[in-house]
Amino acid sequence: MIKAETKQISWLRPKNDRYVLVTMTRQTTVRETVALQSWLRPALTHVGANKDYAKFREQLDAVDSLLRGSLSAASVKSSVSGG
Questions:
Q1: How far is CA 16 from CA 13, 20, 23, in A?
Q2: pLDDT tens-digit profile of 28-76?
Q3: Element (H, E) at 57
């Protein structure tokens, strides 16, 4: 069921060194609310491990090991060359 609701807002506004009361009236439509019935929704299944995340994690670990290997090789090379 749709019904109309009227709201009034009033404020004081300066005009010619005096304050004038201004009132604005707005009419809005109000719809009936529907309650969420969570007991009608089935439970979501639990996802144990996300395959995309596991693949991404493997890629990050591979990049990390490559960077650590190259950094340690670079540090050994710089310490041997003295610079």
A1: 10, 9, 18
A2: 887 777 777 777 777 777 676 778 888 888 999 998 888 888 777 777 6
A3: helix 51-81
